[in-house]
Amino acid sequence: xxxxxxxxxxxxxxxxxxxxxxxxxxxxxxxxxxxxxxxxxxxxxxxxxxxxxxxxxxxxxxxxxxxxxxxxxxxxxxxxxxxxxxxxxxxxxxxxxxxxxxxxxxxxxxxxxxxxxxxxxxxxxxxxxxxxxxxxxxxxxxxxxxxxxxxxxxxxxxxxxxxxxxxxxxxxxxxxxxxxxxxxxxxxxxxxxxxxxxxxxxxxxxxxxxxxxxxxxxxxxxxxxxxxxxxxxxxxxxxxxxxxxxxxxxxxxxxxxxxxxxxxxxxxxxxxxxxxxxxxxxxxxxxxxxxxxxxxxxxxxxxxxxxxxxxxxxxxxxxxxxxxxxxxxxxxxxxxxxxxxxxxxxxxxxxxxxxxxxxxxxxxxxxxxxxxxxxxxxxxxxxxxxxxxxxxxxxxxxxxxxxxxxxxxxxxxxxxxxxxxxxxxxxxxxxxxxxxxx
Length: 438
Fold this sequence. Notes:
Blueprint: H1 3-9, H2 13-21, H3 25-31, H4 35-38, E1 52-57, H5 63-77, E2 82-87, H6 90-98, E3 115-117, E4 122-124, E5 130-135, E6 149-153, H7 161-171, E7 183-188, H8 194-201, E8 205-210, H9 221-231, H10 235-240, H11 256-260, E9 270-278, E10 287-296, E11 301-306, E12 309-310, H12 313-326, E13 331-335, H13 340-350, E14 356-359, H14 365-377, E15 381-383, H15 388-396, H16 407-419, E16 429-431
Parallel strand pairs: 1-7, 1-8, 2-5, 2-6, 6-7, 9-13, 11-15, 13-14
Antiparallel strand pairs: 3-4, 4-5, 9-10, 10-11, 10-12, 14-16
Helix pairs in contact: 12-13, 14-16
């Protein structure tokens, strides 16, 4: 940044606005190009050493601008001379990355504006830096060039993403003019594709994230409201707006499509409500599964809340009792395999009048869960809004895997079993604590 930008950054917002308001028009116009001053923290390059910077962001979150500004900075500073710019298609490459409102031409200051040559597929700066343009539809075109940096836009929409990355990795073999090691910036709305997972897991990768809402100041308010209303609380919204990587594990009993198909935004009057717990039995604060669900007069079940958290026994008992009162539940259902007396005593220490039903898992998780999954498939179980933590666990746990025991899943199964599953292989034991059923 310039000296002025550094000084302004240190000022309170009101003083900063006053200084900007008094700048002459030409100085203010020049200041518009001080990207490091105007950008959000997630839009700036990570500190430290990295080979790949992954900008995982929702639609309209400003990821294209972030990547284009990085390319501009590298070219204008003379740190890079041979830059690869790769788009999903030749059309999107030109329309978005080169000529778009956040593209290389639009963000350039008048005193250092590059020229675009469609014939040679290049964008050239006055100092000699060149961006070579490639479409991911033709990954083999990356066989010839020697590059010192690259920008890839929307990696997750590329049909030949893995082949393109292989070719690019071999083309990135030059140090920059000042000795900088090759680097690549990838701006994308993330999806659970193997190549993205591999890149994110690499020790040389840096990842920044942003949601669509993070860029609300630069988006049309009515459109943002429409998108939030229509897609907020859906799997599509979490992926496209919140930039979450949503993955269904092979062999998982639940899928996101199954859960989405019967999601609701409101529940009817409920005849029964239960709070189900898969307790944490240790003092160090392992995760305890706590799920609230109810049954309506229509015979349908509604999952109301996932309150699971890493808590001590006293912590999960207190949270469960609070949920019992908040949701006007009729009982707490708690798994008691790892100490029925401890579970009972811990809940009693918080509220001696709460009714508790202790259940014992005599069958494997898969056997207990399958009847509940069948109810989902029959559209008899509905999630109230988005329950991200619970849904990630349901769709991310496979019975034959070595994954940790899923506390949220267990709590959900106990709740739905109590409300809708007519028969269980083992009868549950009711413990009444100063409470009589009417």
